[in-house]
Every structure is written in C-alpha cells, then in structure tokens.
Amino acid sequence: MAPARALTALMSLALLAAGCQGAEAEALTRLPVPKPPAVQGQKPVLWVSLAAHLGAQPLLLEGASAPLQLLDAQGQRFSARRLSLRWVQQPLAKPLEIRRSVLGPFASFEAAEQAALAWKALGVAAEVAHPRDWEVWAPAGMAGPKGYPDRQVQQRLTQRRVLQLNTPSGWRSLEGPVQIQAPGGLRFNGGVFAGPFRLQADAYGSWTLVEQVPLERYLQGVVPHEIGAGSPPAALAAQAVLARTWALRNRHRFAVDGYHLCSDTQCQVYSDPRHAGSAVRQAVSRTTGQVLAQNGEPIHAVYHASNGGVSADEDEAWPLPELTYLEPSLDWRSAPPQGLTLPLDRQEVAALLARQSGVVGAAHPLFRWRRQLDQASLRKGLGARATSLGSPLKPVVLERGPSGRVVRLAIEGPRGQVVLERDAIRRTYRQLPSTLFVLTPSGSGSWSVVGGGFGHGAGLSQAGAIDLAARGWTVQQILSRYYPGAQLVPIQALPADGQRRAL
Predict the structure, then answer these.
(1) CB of 414 within 8 A of CB of 390?
(2) Which of 162, 143, 150 is nearest to 207 (CA)?
(3) Sheet of strand 487-490, all strands in order from the earlier edge strand to the far edge
(4) 270, 308, 354, 364: which is deepest, by most CB within 10 A?
(5) What would the pLDDT profile of 38-97 be if each residue is shown by its tens digit?
(6) What SS3 state is found at 347?
(7) Exposure pattern of 6-19 as b/e (b: 16+ CB <10 Å)?
C-alpha cells in the first residue's frame, strides 16, 4: 500500500473540477499532474527536483544575495529575502476516489519500467511512479502481466494540502504551481542554485521543489559528484558525455510527477554547479552537446564506480532487453590470464578476485573487499519477510551471470525461502558493494563474503576510466571500450521529443 502521505489529496481547484462530475466523485488512477515540457533543442532545459514529497514540514527558502520573487497561479506576487512556507489541510468541495492497479515495489526504475512496458504491450495505460519505492500504476481492475502480481489500491480523499506563505499581514494561501525567481541565487541544501524554480503538486498529494536548469549547467553540478573533480581530463570528459546522455535517456523518469529528474542517487547526484572547478567546466565545455547514441536514440549510458576487473551484461543488473553496447568483458590492460574465460563460474570468480596486477582500475578502494553476513544481518536485510522463514537463515547463490555476478540469491530458512534477483540483492543487503562475490561458510550461521568492485558493473567503470585516461587514452577510446558500437553524436542529430520512440 502506498504511504499515507501519498494518499492525502493535493490538487488545484481546476484539476479537481475536471476530475469530479455530478454528485458523486469520479474515480481516478492518481491525482492529475501536468506533464513536464519536452526536453529538446540545441540548449535543452531539465526540470530537476531539489526536494520531493514536501508538505509534512514547513519550508524556508532563502535568497543568497537578493530577494526572492514569488508568483502563484492566481497572479499573487511577493518578494522577500526569506520565504517562510507551510502546508495546511483543507476539505475538498467533493470527495475524490483514487483506484488503481499496482505492480511492485521494484528495486529500481529500470525494473519498474520493464514491467510498465510489459503492461503497455497488452494495451494497458501503465506509468511508473515513485511514492516511496518504484511502482507501476494502471487503471483499477487491470490484471498484471505474466509474472507480475498486481494489487488493488483504493482511497477516498476528502482533504487537500494547501500551500501558505507567511506575510506581514499573516499567512496567505497560494495556488500552485508557484514560480520563484532568484536573481542572486537560491540558498538550499548547502548550495546556491540559479533557477528559476517551481513549487508544484505531485501525483501523491505532496509537493516538489523543482529547478529549471539548462542541461550544460546541470552537468557542472553532476560531473564532480559522480567521478571526482580531480580525475584526468579525458575521464572527466567521458563522464560529461555519459551524464548528458543519461539525462536525455531518462528525461521521462518522473513524468508522473511533472518533472524530469531527481537530484539524488535515484538519478544522478546533482548539487551546486558553482562547485565545479575549471577542469570540470572545461570537460563539459569540451564535449558540449555530445551524446552517445545507437539507432538514433541516446543509449542507456549507465556507469558505476568500479567493475572489479570484469564488466557486467545489462541483464545482470536489470531485466532489460539485449543491448549490444553493454556486453560482459574482462577489463585488463592486456590479454587476461589463462583460466579466465567468460562466462565465469564460481571458481573463476574466486580466481579473478585473488588478482589485482594487470587489471584496469585496481586503485579503487573497493576494487577488492570483504564483508560478513550473520543471522542478524540476514534478517535485517529481509525485514518482515524473514519472519515466515524460521531460523537459521542461509544465503545460497542460485545463478550467476556471464561476468560471474550473482543474479539470483536465495535466503533459505526451515520454512521457505526468499529469492532476490539482480539489483534487489544490493538494495536488500546494502553492505555489499557489488554482486561480484563468492560466499564461504565462516562459522555457525555466518558467511564470509569476498568481492570486487562497487556498483552494478555495467557500462563505464569510473575507476577504469581514470586509470585509462592517466595512461593517455582519449575520450573516444574510453567510451568505445565500455560501450562498443555506440556513436558519439551531437544532440541536434537526435530526433525531436515528439518523434522519438517510446523509451
């Protein structure tokens, strides 16, 4: 069931009137939210969430060096250096019925999107949502696609959250969306952002603070936080290309909530662009407008910190269709040693993890790692699911992918088992930096985990890119190594938003 905050109504009076007809409230799948604008042109603009699910606590917005200028949907204007905002509950003129079929929760957007595509293939209007975890929503009564159990959610909403501003004459109600200009920048979350900004309602009854940020400025706030500002120039430039490509490929990620991307680890980490030093700015400028594409579309430009010496197939991380530019491969400076041939079995993974010399990116601090799983940690990861399994619990590797990564892990107990697949393994046991590992019993109810790398392992290894760039590799050579077959093209070579295939 969606969290309580996702079931509290918040919508404009115009949207409410459109959704309710006659004496009885019309049932909707979700609260209506206008779609964000298309991301297109040579200088595209992204709508990026700086803070989501707002409404439970007051919000203070502060201009960095000049007053903020606020304009709400009814034309009310206010200007102040600090804007003190709060949300209050007000009754709806008519109750609103929310009814929907739900798939999930899913460990990632990628997994949720594949479920949504499976539903759409059956003619069902499905969309990905993120009330707390990733879910897929469709009209009530729709049975889930094969392999995806559905559940029905129903709620009668009688209130909505109304945004209010503290003015010299008292609290004033505002109608969203609320536009905010910050001539001197907005001080927020330890940084300063240029904007402009919007406060707008989402699909769950809460609100979002959105920055409308040009793509190239967005990259200045992403690149140093994703790969590190001190990386060699070619590695920084490769990261800039990938961050740009990823943003364009994922611009539909939060369409249900009326914006494009978030600013945390569910997307790309985005922070104050002013923190970008000259090297980062040069990397972004050097690659301005360049993206990796295949068949006229931006690729799934996934990347991670360290692959531990072997790149993963996309299917080892997410249930994606075959992508020819994301293939498993041993990441060595020259030919890999004898005895290591893809696909890797458990014995070969153990042999790989025993080696460091000759492997690209071996300087990363999590290139090799050790962890311990005991009864307490096994139960903590599973949470309520562990109750029905009994005791003791035991982790069992059911399947490995071609790179040797664990793609199906069972947690077994006397009364049953829970099977974790792909990205759900690390989401459940966050102490594991990657799924490239071997398990060895280390005592009563305890297992030693020896592993390599940090992240999902597909696409570019940032540690590998830094290593290769330091050895003189160019941007094109680095990108070709990790995304064979993808082409470096200018943004204007991509079709316009309305002409692109559904992603």
Answers:
(1) yes
(2) 162
(3) 297-298, 290-294, 487-490
(4) 308
(5) 998 888 999 999 999 999 999 999 999 999 999 999 999 999 999 999 999 999 999 999
(6) helix
(7) bbbbbbbeebbeeb
CB 137 within 8 A of CB 345: no
In tens, the pLDDT along 105-138 reads 999 999 999 999 999 999 999 999 999 999 999 9
3-state SS of 301-328 is CCEECECCCEECCHHHCCCCCCCCCCCC
Asked if 32 and 26 touch (Cβ cutoff 8 Å), the reply is no
Burial 23-43 (b: 16+ CB within 10 A, else e): eebeebbbbbbeebeebbeee
**Single-letter amino acid, residue 226:** E
Q: Which residue, 357, 392, 79, 83, is CA-closest to 209?
A: 83
| Distance separating alpha carbons of residues 350 and 358, to the nearest angstrom | 16
Measured on CA atoms in the order 460, 466, 470, 475, is the torsion positive or negative?
positive
Distance CA 77, CA 172 (A): 11
Look up residue 332 and give its DSSP letter.
B
Using only C-alpha atoms, the chain has a radius of gyration, in whole angstroms, of: 24
Residue 11 backbone phi and psi in degrees, to 5: -160, 160
Non-local CB neighbours of 170 within 8 Å, separated by 6+ positions = none
Backbone angles phi, psi at 134, to 5 degrees: -70, 130
End-to-end Cα distance, the chain: 27
Q: Which residues are CB-contacts of 357 (< 8 A; sequence separation ≥ 6)?
A: none
Tokens standing for residue 28? 């909707």
How far is it, in rounded angstroms, from Cα 325 to Cα 295? 12
Q: Residue 200's closest CA among 69, 79, 93, 54?
A: 54
DSSP H helices, 228-322, are: 233-249, 278-286
